[in-house]
Amino acid sequence: MSTPPEQPTPSEPHLADLALDALRRPPGQSGGGNGMPRSGHRRAVSTDFSVDEAILVEGTGYEPLGLVAGAAIYRPPFWGRYGVSMRENRELADLSNSLHAARTIAMGRLRAEAEAHHADGVVGVRLEFEGAEGKGRDYRFNAIGTAVRATRHATVRANERQSDGLPPRQGEVFTSDLSGRDFALLARAGYVPVGMVMGVCVYHVARRQFGDWLKTQNANIELELITTALYDSRELAMERMQLESHALGADGIVGVQIKEETHVWGSHVIEFLAIGTAVRLVADEHRSLRPEMVAPLDDLTVDTDPRRLHGR
Amino acid sequence: MTATESTQGLPPDALRRLEESEDTAGRRGLFTSDLSVNEFLLVKEAGFHPRGLVFGSSIYHIGFQRKGLRKNQELGALTQAMYTARELAMARMETEADVLGSDGVVGVRLSVNFYDWGKHSAEFIAIGTAVSADETDTEWKTSAGKPFTSDLSGQDFWTLVQAGYAPLGLVMGTCVYHVGYRGVGAVMSTTMRNAELPHFTQALYEARELAMSRMQEEARALGAEGIVGVQLVEKSHFWGSHVIEFLAIGTAVRPLRPDHVIAQPQMIVTLDT
Amino acid sequence: MSGPSGPPPPPPSVEGSEGTASLDDLPEAARSRLTEGAAPGGTWTSDLSVSELSAVERCGFTPAGMVVGMTVYQFGMQGYYGTSGGLGSTMGGQLYTTPGWAGGYQQTYLCQHATYGHMPGYNFEDLWYEQGLTEAYTLAIDRLREEADLLGAHGVVGVRYDSHRVPLASSAPVIEVRMVGTAIRREGSPPLSEPFTSHLSGQQFAKLIDTGWVPGALVVGVGAIRSYGGCVVGNGTSSGVTYQYASGEFRQRSDAIQNCRRFAVDRLETHATGYGERVVGVDVAAQFHSSMEDTMMVENVMIGTAVRRFRDIKDPQPARVVVGLADVSR
Questions:
Q1: For the whole model, what pTM was predicted?
Q2: What's the gap between Cα B226 and its chain centre?
Q3: Does the structure's ipTM exceed the value 0.90?
C-alpha cells in the first residue's frame, strides 16, 4: 500500500509533469526542494527492494546503502559421512559443524561488506545452498541482501534499548531474512532484528535389522527408536538456534523454518536446519498496529480446486 | 521441569530446549515461532504472546490388513494406526506446550512424511507455535486443563478472537476404506452407458461421512459450538488405488461472548494482482 | 573484508554501443509498426494488465504501444574460448600478457606445499567477456528506448527481459538478449531527450510517482571471473594434505564468487549514477557457474531500475495496516 499522494492543487503542476521535468534536467540537479539529497555527487545506491519495500523501509527512517553479498565454498570433512555403523542412529557432528561453518562464513562475508558501508544491518537476506559440486562435494553457499542504516528520523534503533538494563550491542551489524515489508512492520511495533540465527544437525538414521523388520512387518506400531532419533535431531537443531539467539540478547525468533535435506549423502543421512530471524523489543513496550478489517473485492470465489478432493 | 509421567515420549533434548526458553525472574524467556511477521504481530494484537515452537513426532509402522477383494469395507486396523500416530504426534506437541506453561498452540500443521528408508513406515509430525494470553481473566485452556490447539493462521486467529470466538482444539476424524472391485456382471451392465456407479458412490460417500462424524464426535466431546476451516483430505499413501484414507480436520471453536459483531469491514479493491 | 586489496577496476567501456545503435539500426518492420502506432488515431498495444493500466492512467500517463529491444551477440575469440579446462595446466607465465586480462582484478594463491615446482592458483577477471556482456544488454536497452522515441513516448514500464545462448554454428558463444515493455506517454508534454526505461510494473511505477520518485533508466552491472586452481586445489586449508582429504573453506573459489557479485553491484551503481540516486528491484538476471576439477567460471548480470527523486513528500502518511477477510493461505 502506498502513501496517497499530496494531491496538487489546481495551481500546482501535475505530479507527472514534475516528474518529467526532473528528467529534463541533467543528473545532479534533479532535486527541487530543500534538504533533498543531490544526486551526481553521490554514487547511486543499489537495492533489491521492490518499490513497496523501498517506501516502507524509508518510512521507518532507515536508508538503503547498497546490495551486499557473501559467498563460501566449503569442503566437508572427507570422513564425515563414514565411520558410522549402518545400524547406528546418531548425529554426524563433523558434517553438522561443516555445514554450520560454511553458512557462518558466507554470512560473515556479507556482514563484512555491510560494515564497509557503515551499515546498521542487512535486511532481506537470502541465504541459499547452491549445490554441492566437484569430487570433494564442496558446498556452495551464497547470501545476498540490502544494507541499511538508521537516519535521524528512525523510529527504532538497532543498538539501544530504553527500558531494561541490558547493555546495547556495539558495532555488530544485524542480519535478517525478513523482507523490507516485514522489517518495517516490526519496526512499527517496536522491534528490531538482531540477527539471523540457525542450528544444524546432520543425523544418520540406522538401517533396520532384518529380524526387527520381520517382527513388525505386519504390525501397526510406533517405531520408537527412529521416532526418538528424528525427534531428537530436530530438537537439537532448534536448541542450537535458540542458543545463538541467546548470545545476541534476543527476545524471540520469528519466521522459523525447519528444513530437511539429504544433499548428497543418500537417504539415510539427513540435515535438519532450523533458521529464523532473532528480534528484540527496543521500544518500551509492544506498540499496537491497530489493524483494520477490510473485505477485498477481489476474487472471493469458493475454492473448488479439484486437486483438493484428491489430496496433494 | 524434570521428566515426569506427563512428559513421557519427549526426548531429553526437547525438555532441555524448552527449559532454556522458559521465563526467568524479571525477564521473559526467548520465544521461537514459525509464524510470519504478519502473523506474529496479529497474535500480539489478539492479546497473546508467542512462547515457543512446539513440535511432536511419531514414526509409525503401518502394517497390512486383509480385505475381501469385492467388499466395500473400512479397514479398522489401518484407521486406528493412522489415527493413533497423529494423536501421538499431537499429544507430544501438546505436552511441549504444557511444559512451556502456555495457553494454546496456533498455526498447527500436521504432516505425514515418507522416507526412502522406511518401507511402510511414515513420520507423523505436528508443529505449531505455543502462545500465552497477556491477560489472565479469560480461561483459554480446554476444560481438561490442556492448552487449546488450532490450525488457524495468525490472521484467522486474530479475526476469530475479534468475532468473539475462541479455538478449543484441533479435531480430526479418519477412515481408511477399501473400495471393493466390481463384479464382472456389474462392469458388463454399465459398459458403454452413462450411469452412476452405486457401488463406488456408496463406498466413497460412507467413508467421508464416517471421517466427518468422528471429527464431529471429537468436537462434541470438547464441548465446542462448531468447527471452522474443515479440510477433507483423501490420500492413498502407499496402498494402491483401492485403499483410501479420508481425513477430516478442523478447529473446534467455542463462543467467548454472546454476540459476534465485528467492526464493519471496509470494502477495498487492490490493484496489486 | 574478504576482497582483494586494491580498489575494484573501472567498469568495462560501453562506448562502442553508442553510434552503432542508431535509429537506422531498427528493422524496417519495427519502424513501420511504430510509425503507424504513433500516427493520430493509431491503436496502441500494451501488455499491461487492467490493474496496471488503471494505475498508470491514474498518475497521468497513457500507453503508447509495446516496444521491443533485442540483440544477438557473439563473444569474440581471445584465444582461449573453447579451450577452458585444459588451460589451467598450460598458461603459467602468459597470464599477465594476454590483452583481455590486462588491467582487471587478479589474485594469486600461492601453493602451500613446502617443496618446489608447484603451480600457484589464479583468479582473474575476464574483462573482455564482461565488456561483451555489458554491450549486449546495453544494446537491447538502447533499442527499447529508440522504439519508445519513435512512438513519441516518454518512457517504458514493465520491461521484461531474458537472455539465452543461441545454438548457432559458431565456435564462439552467441547469446540473445530480449526485452519487451510498454511505452507510455504524457499528453501535451514535450518529448524527453531520452525516454526512461524501467522494469517496474504499472502499479509500482504509480507508487513511485506518488512518493516523489521517477524512474531514470534500466541499468546493468556485469561481473565475470575465472578461477584456475593451482596444484593443491584445496588452497588455504591444510598444507601438505592432499586435496581430497582436506576439509574447510576453499578460499580461492569463495573469493571468485564474492568478487564477481561485488563487481556486478559496483558496475550497476556506477551505471546508475548518471540516472538517479537509487536503484530498486535489483535482480540477478543471469547467473552462470561452471566448474570442473580445477577451473571455475562465474558470471553475474544484475539489472535494476535507477530512480530519481523529483519532489520531497513532507511527512508521508504511514501505510495502513489492514487484515483482509479473504482467504489467506499459509
A1: 0.82
A2: 15
A3: no
